[in-house]
Amino acid sequence: MKGVRYAFTAEPWQHAPPGGWWFVALPADLSAEIRQAFGTEEEGWGRMKATARIGGSEWRTAIWYDTKHHAYLLPLKAAIRMAEGIVVGKGVQVEVWV
């Protein structure tokens, strides 16, 4: 069982390029809803276990609540980015289960 599904479109971005981590930020309203419903399940640093899907790629991961963005951030592994042709600034359809 995957849990509660959230779907959204977001633009990937890279922290401290070159070589930095890639992320998509969950929309603020979804982040607030998730935090209210599941905030007690957060681990250290606002980490929450999740399953994500972009295109045909699905993986187990975690989302982190970022107080600067007031949103959860989903990290994008290099293998996922390559498999799905993800580039910075081009919106992607994302599904996350928490």
Unreliable segments of 5+ consecutive residues = none
Strand residues, percent: 35-45%
Biggest sheet strand line-up = 1-7-4-5-6-3-2
User: What is the element string, with H for helices and E for strands?
Assistant: EEEHEEEHE
Determine the mean pLDDT.
95
Offer a few descriptive terms.
alpha+beta, 2 helices, 98 residues, 7-stranded antiparallel beta sheet, 7 strands
Task: Describe this structure as you would to a colleague.
- The chain is of the alpha+beta class and 98 residues long.
- It has a domain at 21-76.
- The chain is built from two helices and seven strands; from the N terminus they run βββαβββαβ.
- The protein has a seven-stranded antiparallel β-sheet with strand order 1-7-4-5-6-3-2.
- The relative contact order is 0.32.
- The model has no long low-confidence stretch (mean pLDDT 95).
Briefly, what is this?
This protein is an alpha+beta fold.
Describe the secondary structure blueprint for this structure.
Layout: E1 5-10, E2 13-14, E3 22-25, H1 28-38, E4 47-54, E5 57-66, E6 71-75, H2 78-84, E7 92-97
Antiparallel strand pairs: 1-7, 2-3, 3-6, 4-5, 4-7, 5-6
